[in-house]
Design goal:
Elements: H1 14-31, E1 33-37, H2 38-54, H3 61-75, H4 78-91, E2 100-107, E3 114-120, H5 125-135, H6 148-169
Antiparallel strand pairs: 1-3, 2-3
Length: about 170
């Protein structure tokens, strides 16, 4: 029985699976977008998003060095770690989470495997520009639960009545 087993083994032993996810994570960090199977993309998302989150927590120099070492232990690639901390981290600094996007691409003709493209969200120029321009003008406002229109109409109806009564008195 597999109660509580959330790990997708991807048909591999632990060492092989770790190596696979390590290589895929390095590739998505350096290339910003890769095409793979849907199962591998979902497993990669769980693997790489905590690593990207570690780049944001940098209060002092010791903490930055510690995070570099932790991320390097997962990736084993100096170039990918440097890219992650210098290029990716500043771009995702304001994002609260959800750094990757998975887009389904259909099936692979050879073995009917479901293909998917996984990409870093902030590095997509097509979606990124429209989201950034749409997000800036919108401001958060607090709204009451009662509708504002009847109160305004009632206030407008009372105002002319008050002025009509005031003018004849003078």
């Amino acid at each position: 029985m597999r109660h509580g087993d959330k790990q997708n083994n991807l048909g591999r032993k632990k060492a092989h699976r770790d190596a696979l996810l390590m290589n895929l994570a390095c590739q998505i960090i350096t290339h910003k977008r890769i095409v793979t199977t849907l199962a591998k993309a979902k497993a990669l998302r769980k693997y790489v998003e905590p690593l990207i989150t570690k780049t944001k927590k940098s209060a002092n120099k010791e903490e930055i060095m510690h995070n570099h070492r932790v991320v390097f232990s997962y990736l084993n690639d100096k170039i990918a770690v440097k890219e992650l901390f210098t290029v990716v981290a500043p771009k995702i600094a304001t994002r609260p989470g959800g750094y990757t996007r998975i887009i389904k691409l259909g099936i692979r003709p050879g073995d009917n495997a479901e293909k998917a493209m996984i990409e870093l969200v902030d590095f997509n120029e097509i979606y990124g520009n429209s989201i950034a321009t749409a997000a800036e003008p919108a401001k958060k406002t607090r709204r009451s639960k009662a509708p504002a229109a009847p109160k305004k109409a009632a206030a407008d109806a009372e105002a002319p009545a008050a002025t009509d009564e005031a003018t004849p008195a003078e």
